[in-house]
Design brief:
Blueprint: E1 14-23, E2 26-30, E3 38-41, E4 62-67, E5 73-78, E6 84-88, E7 96-101, E8 105-110, H1 119-132, E9 136-140, H2 158-174, E10 177-180, H3 189-196, E11 200-204, H4 211-218, H5 231-234, E12 244-247, E13 253-256, H6 278-283, H7 301-307, H8 313-325
Parallel strand pairs: 3-5, 8-9, 8-11, 9-10, 11-13
Antiparallel strand pairs: 1-2, 1-4, 2-3, 4-5, 6-7, 12-13
Helix pairs in contact: 1-8
The structure holds guanosine-5'-diphosphate, magnesium ion (MG) and zinc ion.
Magnesium ion (MG) binds near residues 211, 212 and 228.
């Protein structure tokens, strides 16, 4: 085949690149970490390497592309995914929708007030991240609501400050990183920037916690809309929702998922659920029975750890509630 030099501006005739946007009919690809998006299309059905199933291509997927003689690009293959975030449909078709692939870190954003964090929502979300193999950091945003001015001893709100300390304690004890942030004061925004550098990250959490504000604080040029009431209408639907990746001026890339506050709960076997609670996974080898559901079995190391204060009783009750639910929980059930 003769070389085609008609589209030399950014791309060679074949190669691999990352999907940075999907808009119904076509995809935008860029060879990260370069930011030079170009259009590509899929013809026919693509098979995932090493898998017999067909699957839609998601933002974050690494794909192979080929340029044809007219200078347009076709996606010819998808690379294996490091991880992917799947959203279960709430309708009867039970179809799964891949939100994003190859995410380096999810920032689960919560606030103590406006809106008030629901621990069961947090715990379900964390279980989902564990099941998908996506590293997660919890951002406790709006820290200005309870923290005094930098360098001063005074606390803005003692009660809220105590709740914050309790929250941080529960989740650090479970093995998660919790970063308190404030867009208003800039508190820990620098550390957040450091965590995003050269990574593909995603912000998730309930509406109103400050996801868009945080992303704008990382890179004001993105100018994402904040406090958007219309977002409420997007929740629970995904037909009109397109995901896309934005480059951050501080380095790294953020996947924007409009209207998504959680990912729903994955299907799991009852005896596997505790594997998705890191603090239970750590001790369950010492349970007398294998498998152990950590409910009624004698000699249960998890229950012993709860009684010894090594596992938070709140986390344990979330675990029990999830066992009871039997996977019935779906996103939007807050
Ligand atoms: N006090 C305070 N308000 C914040 C902070 N971050 C965001 N907000 C406000 O919270 C509201 C929701 O923010 P937005 O970014 O739209 O939340 P999103 O729905 O998660 O994207 C807006 O009114 C923001 O100004 C913060 O750190 N402190
Ligand atoms: Mg937003
Ligand atoms: Zn047990």
């Amino acid at each position: 085949m003769k070389e085609n030099f008609s589209n030399k501006n950014c791309c060679s005739a074949t190669g691999s690149a990352v999907v940075v946007k999907h808009t119904g009919s076509h995809y935008l690809l860029s060879r990260l970490p370069e930011w030079n998006p170009f259009i590509a299309v899929v013809r026919g059905k693509l098979r995932l390497k090493g898998s017999t199933s067909t699957n839609p291509i998601a933002v974050g997927d690494v794909v192979d592309y080929q340029e044809d003689s007219t200078g347009s690009f076709t996606i010819t293959g998808i690379h294996d995914r490091k991880n992917c975030i799947v959203r279960k449909s709430q309708n009867l078709s039970r179809q799964n929708h891949v939100i994003a692939a190859n995410i380096d870190r999810v920032f689960l954003t919560v606030t103590l007030r406006d809106p008030e964090v629901k621990l069961q929502f947090v715990d379900r979300f964390l279980v989902t991240c564990e099941a998908y193999g996506v590293p997660v950091t919890i951002l406790l945003n709006k820290a200005d609501l309870y923290r005094g001015e930098e360098g001063s001893e005074s606390l803005a709100d003692e009660d809220l400050a105590q709740m914050a300390a309790g929250f941080v304690q529960i989740y650090s004890q479970a093995g998660y990183d919790v970063l308190e942030t404030s867009v208003t004061t800039g508190y820990n925004i620098g550390r957040l920037k450091d965590m995003c550098r050269d990574k593909v990250v995603l912000f998730s959490g309930q509406s109103g916690v400050g996801k868009s504000s945080l992303v704008n604080a990382l890179d004001p040029s993105l100018n994402l809309k904040t406090a958007e009431i219309s977002q409420a209408h997007l929740q629970g639907r995904h037909t009109t929702t397109f995901y896309q990746m934005h480059p951050l001026s501080c380095g790294g890339f953020v996947v924007d998922t409009p209207g998504i506050r959680g990912f729903g709960l994955v299907d799991f076997k009852k005896e596997e659920l505790s594997n998705y609670f890191p603090e239970m996974l750590r001790v369950e080898d010492n349970c007398r029975f294998v498998p152990c559901t950590h409910t009624h079995e004698p000699g249960c190391a998890v229950k012993a750890a709860v009684e010894a204060g090594e596992i938070s009783p709140l986390r344990y009750s979330s675990y029990l509630a999830m066992l009871e639910d039997d996977g019935k929980y779906r996103e939007g059930d807050e």
